[in-house]
Design a protein that fits this description.
heterodimer, B: alpha+beta, 4-stranded antiparallel beta sheet, 3-stranded antiparallel beta sheet, 7 strands
Chain lengths: ~300, ~130
Amino acid sequence: MPELFSPVDYAIPAFIILVIIEMLWARRRAPDKYEPKDTLTSLALGTGSNVASALGGATVFALAIWLYEHRLFEIGWVWWAWPLCFVLDDFAYYWAHRTGHRVRWFWASHVNHHSSQHYNLSTALRQSWTSYIALSFIFRIPLALIGFHPAMLLFVGAINLIYQFWIHTEAIGKFARWVEYVMNTPSHHRVHHATNPRYLDMNYAGTFIVWDRMFGTFTEEVEGEKIRYGIVKQLGTFNLLWSVFHEWIGIAKDVWSAPWRHKFSYMWRPPGWSHDGSRDTSDIIRARWLEKHEVEAAE
Amino acid sequence: MTAELLKLAGSIVAILFLAWLARHWQLGGDARIRNEDDARAIAEEIVCGFESTDVAIDRAGIGALLRDAEGRHLLIRRHGALWVGRLLDRHSETRLDKSFLTVGTGERTFGTVTLNLGEKAQYWAAGLRHLQV
C-alpha cells in the first residue's frame, strides 16, 4: 500500500485564503453576502465536524478494512483504479446526498450544512457533527467490498470534498456549456442550497452533475430569480448547539408524541412529513407553488 | 495526539480570525423593512404563498406583523443581515405596552420580538389574542 497524504490538511490554508478573497469581494460588491455571526457558526461547525471525524472515523475505517478483506475483486493500486474509484465514489455520494434530503433520519445530520441563510465559502465548511451517528457512511463503504482499498476511498472522498468547497459561492456566474453539463458548478449548487419552491431537493451532485441529469433531479438556475438560501423553516438563531442538534431534537419530540403506528415514519419519511398533515414536505410546497403559478398563467 | 490538538487549536484561531475579519470589514449590513411592499416580499419568501392583506411594520423597520385572507398571522424579524419569521397561533405570547407589542412564538431559540407599532399596536394585540388555531 502506498503512503497517502491527507489532501484536506493541505487544502485548509487555501480554504482560508479563498474565504478572505471572497470576503473582500463581498466588501466591495455585496456586504450582506456575509454575516459575521453566521460565519462564526459555519466555521465552528466545520471544526467540530473534524473532531467528530477524528472520533468516529477510526471505527468506520476499521469496518471498511473488514469489508475489504472480504472483497469481491482484486483491484489493487493500478492507475485506472483511481479515476474509477473517484467516479464510483461520486456516484455513491449522489445517493447518500439524495437520501440525506429525502429521509429525515439522514437529514437530521445533513441539515447542518444547509441551515445557513447565506451562501458563501464559509457555508462549504458548515459540516455535520452527527453523520457517524446517522450512519451516512453506509452508502459509500460498499466500494471497499467491491475491492477498492479503504485508504483509496478516503483519498478520493477527500478530493471530492475539496472540489465541493469552491462551488459554494455567489461570486462566480456560469461556465461554458460543456462544463455546466458535466460538472457540478457554483450555479448548480446554488440551486441545491435554495429554498425557492422550484429548486427544493434538486441537484444532489458532488462533483459530476450528470448523476442528477440521469436520475431526474436536475434543475437549471433561472437567471434573474432571486435565490433564498437555507432551510424551509429557518433556524432564527446562530446558537451552535441548536444548529447541530435541532432536527434530532425535533425527531425525538415527534417520535415521543406520535401515535405508535406513526412513530417510525417520523424517522424514515421525508422532512416535513406529519401523520396529521399539519406540516409541509418539499413536494407539497412545490406542488402548491406550481398550482399557484398555473393559475396566474391562466389568468 | 499532540499534532491533532495543535491542528484543532490552529483551526479555532483561524475561525476566530475570519469571524473578526468579517466584523472588522463591516460585512452583514443593516437590514430594514422600508415599506409594506418590502414586508410582503419578505413574508412571501418565508411562507410560500402567503399573501398578506394587512401589514404593521415596526417603526425602526426591524420586524413586522402580517395577516392574510385566511386570518393567519406571520411575525417577521431581522436575523443578522436577513429575515426570519414564524406563523403565530393561539399559543403565541402577546404583551402590549402602549405602542410596543411583544410577541413570543413559544420557541426559546427564536426568542420574543418587541415591535413599536404606534397606534396599530392595540389593534394587532387584539387580533393575536383572538387567534383560533
